[in-house]
Backbone:
């Protein structure tokens, strides 16, 4: 069974404060004193992982990336392959358009450039995700823009 272990990738690419406060569905950022804006890692990440792991917000407790949910191979652990895959109910618009999202760190590459450089690995993970969730639009996302396959 896959687990997070030393991986903190979601704590670096899935912000939920400041401009991304819309993602804080439980409004817990103040309760836990979390600062996690786009482009920065969560302020609770430390050298050993999450400093509040035993008492973390509900949004964090409920999240599992597809590496865990789909029991993907070790090579697809986010901190090893450089991206995180997740199924997003409601997609980007929050409507009835479910999507598969690929998140990666940084602004140096556009999402299209990231995809072109990692096409084989991204396509393999997307194939696994589509086997589980059905055919859905794929959105490749960094902290400033997205690219749709």
Residues:
């Amino acid at each position: 069974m896959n687990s997070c272990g030393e991986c903190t990738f979601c704590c670096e690419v899935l912000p939920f404060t400041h401009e991304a406060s819309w993602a804080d569905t439980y409004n817990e950022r103040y309760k836990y004193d979390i600062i996690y804006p786009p482009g920065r890692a969560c302020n609770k990440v430390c050298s050993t992982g999450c400093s509040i792991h035993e008492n973390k917000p509900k949004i964090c407790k409920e999240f599992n990336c597809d590496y865990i949910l789909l029991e993907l191979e070790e090579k697809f652990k986010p901190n090893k392959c450089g991206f995180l895959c997740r199924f997003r109910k409601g997609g980007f618009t929050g409507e009835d358009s479910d999507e598969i999202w690929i998140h990666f760190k940084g602004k140096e590459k556009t999402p299209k450039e990231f995809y072109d450089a990692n096409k084989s690995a991204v396509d393999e993970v997307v194939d696994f995700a589509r086997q589980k969730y059905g055919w859905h639009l794929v959105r490749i996302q960094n902290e400033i823009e997205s690219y749709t396959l």
Notes: The chain has a mean pLDDT of 89.
